[in-house]
Amino acid sequence: MSNTQKNRITVDIYGQQYVILGTESPSHIRYVASLVNAKMREISSKNPGLEVNKLAVLTAVNAVNDYIKIKEELERLTIELQKEKE
């Protein structure tokens, strides 16, 4: 059994209430929710007729794309740093 305390936080994303359960701090959970909300609103403003489920999928695709780019950059910088240490 884990000793890690879980936080239960209610957040608002795109007009819907969600209860998020996680080990991160409440402020971190709220921050993540606010980023998701902002991205959904950004995509919705460019595609006003988009259904909510499609909007959610496009938001997820955007988030994963950003994650992959950042991960690749981290890997590149890690390799560069290792080369400098040699």
From TrEMBL:
Pfam family, one: ZapA
One GO cellular component, as annotated: cytosol
Compartment(s) where it occurs, according to its Swiss-Prot or TrEMBL record: Cytoplasm
GO BP terms, alphabetized: division septum assembly; FtsZ-dependent cytokinesis; septin ring assembly
Superkingdom in the source lineage: Bacteria
Alphabetized UniProt keyword annotations: Cell cycle, Cell division, Cytoplasm, Septation
Main location: cytoplasm
SUPFAM superfamilies, sorted: Cell division protein ZapA-like
Task of the protein: Activator of cell division through the inhibition of FtsZ GTPase activity, therefore promoting FtsZ assembly into bundles of protofilaments necessary for the formation of the division Z ring. It is recruited early at mid-cell but it is not essential for cell division.
Oligomer and partners: Homodimer. Interacts with FtsZ.
Protein's recorded name: Cell division protein ZapA
Record organism: Neobacillus rhizophilus
Phylogenetic classification of the source organism: Bacteria, Bacillati, Bacillota, Bacilli, Bacillales
